[in-house]
Design goal:
Layout (H helix, E strand, L loop, with lengths): L1 E5 L4 H9 L4 E5 L9 H11 L3 E4 L6 H6 L1 H22 L2 E5 L24 H16 L2 E6 L3 E2 L12 H8 L5 E5 L7 E2 H13 L5 E4 L8 H12 L4 E5 L27 H10 L1
Parallel strand pairs: 1-2, 1-3, 3-4, 4-5, 5-9, 6-8, 7-10
Helix pairs in contact: 1-7, 2-4, 4-5, 6-8, 8-9
């Protein structure tokens, strides 16, 4: 099977390459394909004729999207729309990734796949627009929503570091850190998400929307506590409210992703332990 992975040098993209390595893989990053350029997308992918297109490319600079929404919408909306159109014309399957930021965070019991969306930031709105474009165009598609992805650092230039790696770096020089003790969400281990993606495709599950985060939820403070516990680092963590760090973009206060359609993922704590021990 011929599989095209877009965003192949990203944190998730490189794990997808490992998960699908028993296939004919074409690994493209931003220097190989500008997903915003509809003519290029159509020409290059039509020539390639893949059976499966996996789009792990995204604009995920949440605060910068508030000041520069055009770029966010280009990558997160125009890109998936272009890929969905050519995938449908080729009768290929498209796998695209969403985010928990499509929710407003007002629901403290978490969000299942069918809960109404209501993003509160330009980033969330741009990602929701991408989801809606894929759905509207139709064809063979899966949309999988993760949140707080962590894992082996991306190989792409200028890639955003995960919270886990930021904390691990700070632990080398800091003895005290101030961390937000709000914003409950579900951390997602990139290798687990890649394997989940393969499972969804291999099992030929019904096309549509799935949640793909690891099981459970935590605040940033609780996430940091577990990171330092596993690293055996004695860091004094000071919990503060979100308002302590004013940022351009509003974040969902509670955006745990509830998986009701797939086998239960292992806990984020188990996944984190594997990553840090590795």
């Amino acid at each position: 099977m011929k599989i095209l992975i877009v965003g192949a040098k990203g944190m998730l993209g490189q794990e997808l390459a490992g998960a699908f390595n028993n296939n004919e893989l074409i690994l493209w990053d931003r220097e190989d394909l500008d997903i915003v350029n509809s003519a290029m997308v159509r020409e290059r992918i039509t020539e390639l004729k893949p059976d499966l297109i996996i789009n792990s490319a995204a604009y995920n600079l949440v605060d910068e999207a508030e000041n520069n929404p055009i770029v966010a919408y280009e990558v997160n909306y125009e890109g998936p729309k272009n890929l969905a159109r050519v995938a449908k014309d080729l009768d290929a399957c498209l796998i695209h990734y969403g985010t928990d930021y499509v929710f407003d965070g007002a629901r403290q019991t978490g969000y299942d796949e069918d809960h109404p969306t209501h993003p509160v930031s330009n980033y969330g709105r741009s990602k929701l627009a991408g989801e809606q474009a894929v759905r509207t165009i139709g064809g063979k598609y899966y949309i999988i929503r993760p949140s707080r992805i962590f894992g082996r650092p991306a190989a792409s230039e200028g890639a955003k570091k995960s919270f886990v790696d930021v904390m691990r770096t700070l632990a080398e020089t800091k003895t005290e850190l101030t961390v937000v003790h709000e914003e409950m969400a579900s951390p997602t281990y990139a290798p687990d998400l890649a394997q989940l993606t393969k499972y969804v495709f291999d099992q030929q599950l019904p096309f549509g929307l799935y949640h793909g985060a690891n099981d459970g939820a935590c605040t940033w403070h609780e996430f940091a506590q577990e990171i330092f516990r596993l690293l055996h680092k004695n860091i004094n963590l000071i919990p503060v409210p979100t308002a302590h760090f004013p940022r351009p973009a509003q974040r969902p206060a509670f955006s745990q992703l509830l998986n009701t359609k797939l086998p239960k993922q292992r806990s984020w704590q188990e996944a984190l332990k594997e990553y840090l021990n590795g």
